[in-house]
Design brief:
Blueprint lengths: L1 H28 L5 H7 L4 H9 L12 E6 L1 H10 L10 H9 L2 E2 L11 E4 L13 E6 L3 E3 L8 E10 L2 E6 L8 H7 L4 H9 L5 H6 L6 E6 L1 H11 L9 H9 L2 E3 L13 E3 L5 E5 L5 E3 L5 E11 L2 E6 L8
Parallel strand pairs: 1-7, 8-14
Antiparallel strand pairs: 1-2, 3-4, 4-5, 5-6, 6-7, 8-9, 10-11, 11-12, 12-13, 13-14
Keywords: Signal
InterPro entries: Adhesion/Biosynth-related, FAS1_dom_sf, FAS1_domain
Pfam family, one: Fasciclin
Length: 324
Amino acid sequence: MKTIKIKLIAFLALITFVTVSCNNDDDSSQTPQTIVSIAQANPNLSSLTAALQKADLATTLKSSGSFTVFAPTNAAFSAFLTANGYADLNAVPVPILKEILLNHVLSTKVKSTEIATGYVKTLAKGGASTTNNISMYLEKNSGVDINGGKTNGGATVTIADIPASNGIIHVVDGVIGLPTIVNHAIANKNFTTLVAALTYNPSSGFAGILSGTPSSPFTVFAPTNTAFSSFLTETGYSGLAAIPANVLETTLKYHVVAGANVLSSSLTNGQIVSTFAGQNFTIGLTGGAKITDANNRVSNIIATDVQCSNGVIHVIDKVLLPKF
């Protein structure tokens, strides 16, 4: 009888040991690793790991925090290097690489279910502003597009919601470039008419100007599609094709300030603004930010401080009309 009792106690002890061991194993497997550790363990993110090391950002993304990282695959990095004429990652200047990588990082943890269509701020800074971080446009459909997708210098999320101890990872199919004013206009479907207007007369080169850095930074007061529709009704033009080329170009330039990245915090009541068209308009702040154009028409500023690499965008609800 004693032998049976001893065997039974040993058996129960073995069961207890196995159960505790399994529970411990489960606990450790459920403990998320840091963003960098996860990237290092994923063969498809080895280029990202190498880029983080080169740009001295690995330590940041190993530290405690609550980051969201849009992680480009090796194929995405390969396409980026080819498109920009770099032989390999070592050929990318560190300051450029660092800003590009920071443009993939948000300072808060955002799950895919929490993403809504609109603008967020990355950790990157372009050359246009030292204080206002670069904006990222997220579009939520069946998936998530970033800055209009790969064809516009952005990306699409291919694998979402990889948890990390210091945030979350969304794998993307492109390296997200620092967006220009034109990139941001293309990304947001509320600006399709503005984009059509900018590109309607290629000989003006205006779209190219707002894509580049000469005369930059730019401040653009961008009318929405609804604003353009109201403008056409108001002026009696049947469409963009009916607007004389010189009228369209002057009108577009009237929405642009060259050589200044003017943030909303710098606008003052009664401020006279000189535009790229050589004509002025007036800022008003009473009852909300607004613009009075050369024809005493009033447009409301409905969104502000969309930061681009070569300037900043403020959204308005009416097309500004210069004098002709």
